[in-house]
Amino acid sequence: MFTQSSCRWKSFPLYLPVLLLAVVGCGVEGDVAAGGAQGAKSARSATPASPSAPASSQGPLTAELPPVGDAELSPAVRGKKVLVVGDSWAERLGEGMVKVASSGNVIVNAGVGGCGIMLPDLVDGERVRSDCLEWPQKWPEYIAKYRPDAVLLRTTTWDLHPQSFDGAGVQLTIEHPGFRRRFEKNMGKAIDILAKNGTPVYLTTDKLQEEGIWRSSSIEMNKVIKEVSQKYKSRGVHILDLAEQLCNRDDCPSVIDGRRLYDETSHPVGWSRDRLATWILNSMFTRSTGATS
Description:
By secondary structure, the protein is of the alpha/beta class. The chain has helices at residues 30-34, 37-40, 88-100, 135-146, 177-194, 213-231, 242-246, 270-285, and strands at 20-23, 81-86, 106-111, 122-123, 126-127, 150-154, 163-164, 201-204, 237-240, 255-256, 259-260. The chain has a six-stranded mixed beta sheet, with helices on both faces. A three-stranded antiparallel beta sheet has the order 5-4-7, with no helix packed on it. It starts with 19 loop residues before the first strand and ends in an 8-residue tail after the last helix.
């Protein structure tokens, strides 16, 4: 495990609920010490999005290849502390931040695979794990302890799963009004916690999923998450449009220039993860790449 005293890194299984405190820039060994931005330069033959261009400049989805994040970390991302909370995608993006921000920054990766924001009884018909119900208690502790400069809150992928609440036994999705109301209420509660000290909070849209119910749910989720970010704009909440980074008008390609974007669990592989993490950090701390509000 990565700690302040040992500055060592150990890999954990995707769904193991563990808080990783990564203090980067302390003689880290192996893969983390190498950083990710340099290795990501060759990820695409198409010109990537420049860190000097606004993150929202892509506008509506086009027919061009999606940019898949940024290749270079801005020099402005130094001396920063970032808290990452949410689902397994949040956890992976936190790992990418550790990789690319390998000098002079602190990344607190508290993403937990298999957990969302909804506090359900059942997910996909299975009893929810107890650690998925602990964020209302844990997140205030993280804010008080680490006092981050920015927070990434992402649960938009896990919370596409059908869930049931309060013993009702009826599985709902984001396309149901009751689910949506609960999602909005819990997001508001989470924002109250995370933005308590005036800390900016960054939400993300979801990658557009495959056709069928997952596709329609991801479209609805992105609509809702944008509405939430607008509602809490005055609290310092911003939206990062991840769909624009991974999808074009026709598709969300799984291979670009012969390189896979995702692993067998549908999470970003090393190079795409690192580019997305770089884009997120640039968006947080470089005003010219700022997230849309």
